[in-house]
């Protein structure tokens, strides 16, 4: 059993810079066992709670977030690079966001310290 930590919204949904449709968000209910879809990188977690908190504070995530405890199932994959995301205003339409993203270059940046992806997790808290 590997204990890992995740940043989620106050409503226990996947945290994202983007305003996403509900059907694209994962809900992290206590006791749930979650699996990723084929082709997904996996659930991005942090090795320590301190690393999750530092990520939330460094990236100016609003105070409406929670750090939850997960049981990581299976072998994790250390992530060294991620694609930098852009922050859009909540009033920006999805079509406008997609048009802007097509014009913007994708930047690979170093992953936050302690980032590990898992294909399956169990929500403990």
Can you tell me about this structure?
The chain has 125 residues and is of the alpha+beta class. The protein has one domain. The protein contains 2 helices and 9 strands, in the order βββαβββαβββ. The strands form 3 sheets. Strands 1-4-9-2 form a 4-stranded antiparallel β-sheet. A 3-stranded antiparallel β-sheet has the order 3-8-5. The two termini are 15 Å apart.
Brief rundown of the structure:
By secondary structure, this protein is of the alpha+beta class. It is built from 2 helices and 9 strands. The protein has one domain.
**Topology pattern, helix = H, strand = E:** EEEHEEEHEEE
Helix content class: 10-25%
Distance between the termini: 15 Å
Strand content: 25-35%
Continuous helix count = 2
Unreliable runs: 87-91
Number of domains: 1
Largest pleated sheet: 4 strands, antiparallel
Query: What does the radius of gyration come to?
Result: 15 Å
Q: How many DSSP E strands?
A: 9
Helix-strand category: alpha+beta
Shape: globular
**In which order are the strands of the major sheet placed?**
1-4-9-2
Record keyword descriptors for this entry.
125 residues, four-stranded antiparallel beta sheet, three-stranded antiparallel beta sheet
SSE map:
Layout: E1 2-9, E2 33-35, E3 43-46, H1 49-58, E4 65-73, E5 77-78, E6 81-83, H2 94-103, E7 108-110, E8 115-118, E9 120-123
Antiparallel strand pairs: 1-4, 2-9, 3-8, 4-9, 5-8, 6-7
């Amino acid at each position: 059993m590997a204990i890992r930590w995740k940043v989620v919204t106050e409503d226990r949904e996947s945290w994202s810079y983007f305003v996403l449709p509900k059907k694209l968000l994962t809900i992290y209910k206590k006791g749930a066992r979650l699996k990723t879809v084929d082709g997904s990188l996996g659930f991005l977690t942090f090795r320590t709670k301190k690393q999750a908190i530092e990520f939330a504070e460094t990236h100016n995530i609003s105070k409406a977030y929670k750090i939850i405890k997960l049981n990581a199932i299976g072998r994790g994959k250390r992530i060294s690079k991620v694609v930098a995301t852009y922050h859009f205003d909540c009033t920006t339409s999805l079509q406008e966001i997609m048009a802007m993203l097509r014009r913007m270059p994708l930047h690979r940046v170093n992953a936050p310290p302690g980032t590990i992806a898992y294909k399956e997790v169990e929500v403990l808290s």
